[in-house]
Every structure is written in C-alpha cells, then in structure tokens.
Amino acid sequence: MDSTIMDYELTIKSIFWRIEKLYRDRVIVSRLSNSRRTYTYEDFARRVRKTVTFLKQNGLEGKNVASIAWNTSRHLELYFAVPLSGGVLHTVNVRFHPREMDYVVEEMQDSAVFMDEDIEASLNVKTFRLNESYDEIIDSQEPAQELPDLEEKRGAVSCFTSGTTGKPKGVIYSHRSIFIHSLSLLAGDVLGLSSNDVVMDVVPMFHISGWDIPFASLMTGAKLVLPGIRPKPRDLVELIKEEGVTLAAGAPTVWIDVMNYVEKEREDLGKLRTVVMGGAEPPKGLMERMRKLGVRTYHAWGMTETEAIATVNRSDDLNVLTKQGYPIFGFEISLLDPAGRELPWDGKTMGELAVRGAFVTGRYFKGEAKFTWFRTGDIAVVDPDGNVKVVDRQKDLIKSGGEWISSVQLENAIMSFHKVSEAVVVGVHDERWGERPVALVVPKEPTTPQEVVEYLKSLNAFPNWWIPDRIIFVDSIPKTSTGKLDKKVVREEVKKLLQSP
Ligand code: ADP
C-alpha cells in the first residue's frame, strides 16, 4: 500500500529555505586575504541569489562548474548557488598539480572554474578569480527571484579522491545524500550540532565538501567560521578565541600544529569544547594534550566514497577513543574476508570493511562497476557492539615473515613518546622477511633511535619483531593534499635515504 505522504524532495533548496526564513540574523564569518568578513545568513542568502543570476548571465545555469578554493564565504556562496541553479559544483583539490586540475576539470566537463586568488594555475577553461572585484560584480547583480524545482537524486557537489591510492576517481554527491548526511551529523549521538554552536570547519571545502559540515551548520542556524586561504595555527587560534568557536573539525595533523603553537606561545583555546578529528587516526597523546585545555575529541572515520564522516566515536575513555566508532544513521557496515564472506564482530577477526548507505558511492563517475556493498580497502576489526577499529589500509599493512604488522599502530605508539612530534612507518623490501618496517620520526626534543626503541619495548604493546629496523630522524613528513601522511612519497624518500651512505 502506498503512503499518504506528499512528495517532498530532500534538496539543498530545503536547507536554503531555513537559511532565508528562520535564521536571517545568524552569522557567517570568513577569513579573507586582507580582512575578515562577518555577515548575516540574510546577506549570505542574497549573495547566493545574486550568484545564481551571475551564473545565468554567463550561460552557466544548470552546468557543471568547478571551484578551486579554500574555506571562504565566496566558496560557501558557490556551494549553494551552483546546486540551487541545477548545476553540480565540482570542488577541485587546490593542491593538485595544474595538469591534474586540467584532467579532472575536463573529465567532469566543467564549463567554468572559480579560483581563489592564491592558486597559480592557468587552465584550459573559462576562469573567474575569487577576489574583491568578483565581490563587486556579484553585488551588482539582481538577486534571482525564482529557483528551479530540483529532484533529490540530482547531482549537487562532486569531488575526486585525492589519489593516494592511484589515479583520482570521481564521485558525485546528490542533493538527497547531502541532505541526509548533514541531518545525520546533527544527531545528538553524532556531532550534535545545534543553533547554539559556533562551528569552525578546518576540513578543506575542496575535499568531500568539508565533511558536509558547512551544510549541516547552516541547516541548524549555527554560527559558521571559515578559516580562509592557507590558515596557519596562529590564524586558527585567533579565530577560535575571537569568534568564540565551540566546535571545530579537521585532520589530526592540523591539531598537532595548533597544539604545538598553543603550548609554545602559552595560548589557550577560548570557548572551544569539542574537536572532531578524522581522515586519519588521532594520536592518543594529542587527545590528552587537548583534554588538558578542556577540549574533548570526537573521532570520526570516513572517505570520499562515503561522503566523509560515516562512523563516530565519542567515548570519554581515550583507550576506546582511538577506535573509529559506530556507524551513523543511514549507513551500514560489514566485515568481509577476501572471498567476500561475512566475518564475525568479535573485536579480534580482521577483515575488509564493506559499507552501504544513503550517502555511499554506488559507482564511480564514468565507472562501469556498480556497488551494492562498497569495499573500502580498510582492514578492520569490529567489536560485538559495532565499534569499528581500523587496523590499517590494506596496502599499508606490512607483511613480515608471513605475519601482518600495522603501520598505524606503530606510528601511534611512536607518537605517544613525549620526545616525538610525528612519525610515519612504511614497509621496505627485505630478502629474508619479505618486508620490514622503517620509521621516519620528527623529534620534538633531542633523542636517539635507541631511546625510541627502548620506549616502544617498554610499552609491551606488541611483539618485539614489530619494532622498526631503522628509525630515521627527519625535519618533516610529506603530507597529502588533505594533511595525511603521504605514504607513496614516504616510501620513495625512505628508499633514497636507505640507499645513501
Ligand atoms: P584518499 O583515499 O584519497 O586518501 P580519503 O579522504 O577518501 O582520501 O581517505 C579515506 C581513507 O582515510 C580511509 O579509507 C581510511 O583509510 C583513512 N581514514 C579516514 N578516517 C580515518 C580514521 N579516523 N582513522 C584511520 N584512518 C582513517
């Protein structure tokens, strides 16, 4: 029997209705190159409507349009204007090489690109620079009165994987997936965002739509703070204190830099109470340091193909908090063996995490394969109650003498040593064992490889044969465009370091 409920499409237009009707006096703050813009949702909505007119006048209505931009109000206006006009906003990673930018823009057949001031690339497509004269042009437009009706399954935002595992692959999020995922983030057991929050999104808006946090924040009327072009730890701390940020989100590497700055400068973090960390496992030591300043951590796991946050852990116990957490609403998980058979959730059996849900990729852009369950390439164990622990990425596990070593576990163990700031572990070829672990370590204060090894042994956390054969001190560790340890580059670097006398 059919339901009696009216047809109502779950679209960004529905979020925009709230922005215009319910939260007119709420505020958005954006760091721009020479200033900080503070404006109300009402002014923001008017700018969105003017941008829709601008798109129309340039023949871009309903088209695919690319942005190569940081977290700014100009970018946020495009987040709404492009999908509201029926088009798809393709958020391009600012750290891609111009060749890669051209490749993905061509793949998506973007009709134009909106590019931040600092990006040095000239692409084979019409380009608008996001700067002060752009602001003036938008301001001079008439606000669009009519916005088209949209179907919820229509594409709204697209994004390519950052290519740490090969050639970038495209995914397109729909109005519906953005709506449902953002709604899930608001739930009390997930991020619990509310209109009382001041939210700072440090997750790049060019990657997985900033984990949908901009959409979720505006859905609920929170004050949203956008940290702008290439924010430094000092900029972030200034914004946190001056804007009264209560909740912020970003990759652990961002918070390592922030905490190093805060401790060095004897700063504090104002009203900040919660930091959502994901994209990589947050080191326990980092979470401890934040807790001393009264800041709790939520740990989230997700990927481009799951539209970012898909599991969340909010435990008060730091030993439990290193687990990736529970599936959020509208999302299911399963643990599989290589033949695709389901494995038990016993907290011990390792398998590949497979996922499905209302915001999971069903196929790649131009891809043939259709997924009913998407295999993530992450190796995990799942507790009987559904708490996920990611052991490692399949390709980063180190196979030594036929046994697996988790690079992530070793990295976190090394980083828990107080004399160490950062560490990365990769496997290198070994005649006898197949592979052996080697660590690159950024020290925080003077130490020796022997001291690090002694520390690892003292933990009694894993067998001695896990301990890296070489510990090499370096000044910094190569990161991907999204701030993760770039193991592809690290492997090359380690190879070179081991070859040099
Ligand atoms: P890319 O695959 O291009 O690096 P993604 O941002 O999509 O970009 O990366 C997703 C991957 O990041 C996941 O498959 C997982 O391996 C890793 N990851 C994400 N969040 C966490 C987390 N909280 N803990 C451990 N690994 C994580």
TrEMBL record:
GO MF term set: ligase activity
Keywords for the protein's UniProt record, in alphabetical order: Fatty acid metabolism, Ligase, Lipid metabolism
Extent of the signal sequence: none
Gene Ontology biological process terms, A to Z: fatty acid metabolic process
Species assigned in the record: Metallosphaera prunae
Domain AMP-binding enzyme C-terminal residues, every copy: 410-484
Domain AMP-dependent synthetase/ligase: 23-365
Cell inner membrane as UniProt keyword: no
PANTHER family xrefs: ACYL-ACTIVATING ENZYME, BUTANOATE--COA LIGASE AAE1-RELATED
Gene3D superfamilies given in the database record: 3.30.300.30, N-terminal domain of ligase-like
Name this protein carries in UniProt: AMP-dependent synthetase
Keyword Lipoprotein: no
Family the UniProt entry places it in: Belongs to the ATP-dependent AMP-binding enzyme family.
